[in-house]
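Reviewer comment 2.1 asked that we show a complete input and output for one of the modelled complexes. We chose the adenosine-5'-triphosphate case, as it is the one discussed in the main text.
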Amino acid sequence: MSEEKSLNFIEEIIEEGIASGKYKTIVTRFPPEPNGYLHMGHATSICLNFGLTKKYPGYTNLRFDDTNPITEDTEYVESIKEDIKWLGFEWKNELYASDYFDELYNYAVQLINKGLAYVDDLTSEEIATYKGTPTQPGKDSPYRNRTVAENLSLFEKMKAGEFEDGSKTLRAKIDMAHTNMLMRDPLIYRIKHAHHHRTGNKWCIYPMYDFAHGQSDSIEHITHSICTLEFIPHRELYDWFIEKLEIYPSHQYEFARRNLSYTVMSKRKLLQLVNEKHVNGWDDPRMPTISGMRRRGFTASSIRKFCDTIGIAKRDNVTDFSLLEFCLREDLNNTALRAMAVLDPIKLVITNYPENATEELLSENGPDEMQGKRTVPFSKELWIEREDFLEVPIKKWFRLAPGASVRLKSAYIVTCTGFDKDAHGNITTIYCTYHPDSKSGGDHSGLTVKGTIHWVSVAHAATAEVRLYDRLFKVENPSNEEGDFKDYINPGSLQIIKAYIEPSLLSASIDKRYQFLRKGYFCVDKESTADKLVFNRTVTLKDTWGGNAKK
Ligand code: ATP
Ligand code: MG
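Response of the prediction step:
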């Protein structure tokens, strides 16, 4: 990064800490729960955590927060690793909170020994009613004053599987009248006779998030444990456990979740979209998942740039999706290979061009001369876009119309001499004459035209399925609307069309990006085969989002 940028608040804290000698190396972690695929919110957290230890001496751990056996799956573990690598980051250690189950159990025993934890027999409903409200203190559980010996023995039996799910819990003994509800004797362990994706059937008691997270940070000597704002009330408990257990003092810092307009960003909601088949899987190109964006054709560098540009905030907000697309266009404009494809074809016949002749015309592959040129076959009959012809032109119309002239990209200037219509009044064929001395690169015609349109030779064109995507939701913030967020799904978010493409695109590769001239940026979809090419439109050339969109 060469641009001068002001520090974000976490960088400020880090620089102060380094200056005062508090730490020499920075250790952060990215702690996903393997219960879904990563989304753009996670990308923000990844860029932040890994970005900090790229900038400052130190490293970042990848820690799977897998303390909930029910929802977790190794499929998710693999996808998470793939997504982080694709984004361009490397973790120092791959760790699992479940690797610490023995240590966490010992920590719980320590708390019991210190008289700071007890086994409770209240049901979850009773616990909830005993808890009080933010304005009313809670009530002590009748089991709160069990002796250390009794608690040790009961906790041991919980571990040994002697009790049913939900019949007992281990709770921290703090203060049932605390102003912070999370400090009112929070649960530390619950009984769950469930198979765990890594520890199998070894455990039937599992630590709660609050008891696992901070301690895992501490075990790994994480200096800056960064999470989102909803964890602010948890920080007091985070610090309480560290203090009482006398372990390495990691510190928690909070920033605002990344929300993007016209989509939802919660694994739980994204899972519903997948399970109820509103989309075709986690990597559906309309999904705000990293895998969906990758398949759609987003580049890792544009996502990193986006996260970098926006930075992080301390207040919740919604970021405009078009900002992400802006970063993408900037990237693709420099790198995407140029090609011609006609998405809504109409035939153009050049009446004075020789029958059966073909010319191989040179056309540049990109804005940079280094990208070189390719040849595109040209002949008497071409496909052009239906929208590039108007029978009755409007003001400032620089494309085709009866009597009007236009340049065919990398080819000749043509003048429209007539057209055919079918019985329904639809235009079927356009007739033009071409000016043989107007060839691009050696134009001696003296003609000037204001418009240039793209085309594909009918005899040489290949066909492809093209998938055009629109925003997945009709409203800016579907999670904030009344009723179910799925009521706001945009029914027209996927349009599948058949397009004519120039033959060079037959060898298009999945890891390259293409600009179909005047139509947008496209990439090969993973479902594409030699027999049936499939392209995704990644993004249009201009912004078509937002209220004052220019279509
Ligand atoms: P979700 O609600 O989508 O399940 P989560 O926070 O429960 O999200 P985790 O797997 O627990 O998902 O998150 C891993 C890390 O990513 C956490 O540090 C979390 O704070 C961060 N993270 C998750 N969502 C966002 C978001 N929208 N913006 C910024 N960071 C996020
Ligand atoms: Mg979570």
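The pocket of magnesium ion (ligand 2) is lined by residues 33 (CB under 6 Å). We note this here for comparison with the apo prediction described in Section 3.2.
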